[in-house]
Design a protein that fits this description.
By secondary structure, the chain is α/β, with parallel strands linked by helices. About 45% of the residues lie in helices and about 15% in strands. It contains 13 helices and twelve strands.
Length: about 325
Amino acid sequence: MELGGFRIPEEVVRIREGIRTMRIRGAGNIARNGALALAIAAERFSGSDLEAFLKYMGLVADYVRSSRPTAVSLPNAVSYVMSRLERSRPTSVDDARRAVVEASKEFIEYSENAVKLIGELGARRIERGDILMTHCHSTVAVSVIVTAFRQGKVERVYVKETRPAFQGLITARELAKEGVEVVLIPDSAVRYYMKKVDKVVVGADTIAANGAVVNKIGTSVVALVAKEARVRFYVASETYKFSPYTILGELVPIEVRDPTEVVDPGWLAENPNVQVFNPVFDVTPPEYVDAVITERGVIPPQLAALILIEQYGVKLLDAYPAHRSLGLHVDTE
Ligand code: RUB
């Protein structure tokens, strides 16, 4: 494929298409693959023109970033790598390539460690004999559940099938493989089973500055039902799923996918007067979330802005210099 006069390596195109078509899915996995795609692109660049390399990497970054809109982990991973490239002030293509490859590796390692750490921190919130519920497939929520199970705490897990893409089946398979007692239930059975549940654990695609959690469509219904039943609702999320854009007032774009993921094309053709919509994420307000389990600690969702300011303070101020006149200045570097 060609982009702005540069040839984009086949493997990078494959990763981008994998994310777009959901062969590669889940916010953490998407971010790790995004970082990997940048490293592959850097490695495959031939030539010694530094300016051309930087232009090429900028194009690849935009190309990777635009694969799917909702999970902020993807633009955050891309920015992590690209900002390290910029800060390295390279004087040759080799320098620049090294900076990208190292940053990509660093991000992937950080991410994998974060998933483990969240598993350990989250398992502390699970008590012996607990019956859990989860929604969709989240690597980090599975990490919490499996860690708690290995500590002998989890009695059973209700897994919602999660229509229309049925990611619940992936979760059910992974948990059952670990030996967890799994009960797969239709999404519509959430309230029927909630009375048997002690705690809900889900993942996140994006956490907004006000602590609102964007995750797979239907998550907010689980949270609502959990609140009604006084069941604790935990969100497991790495800090790179917190959105710096929301602190600047941007809304989180909710991806709407093809109707043929809901009903087959034949049915659509036979029923031309029926509209079919397929929004794939929804927003759970912070007041429905008991805690967000991050690799940097278990926090109330209302502290999301603090994580963001700590992580991006200076850069956020750069993005919106008017903040300076308000005297809001947090030094992070
Ligand atoms: C996946 C989803 C997951 C989060 C967190 O949606 O909503 O709960 O991405 O996953 P999709 P992880 O299947 O549409 O990508 O913990 O693996 O990052």
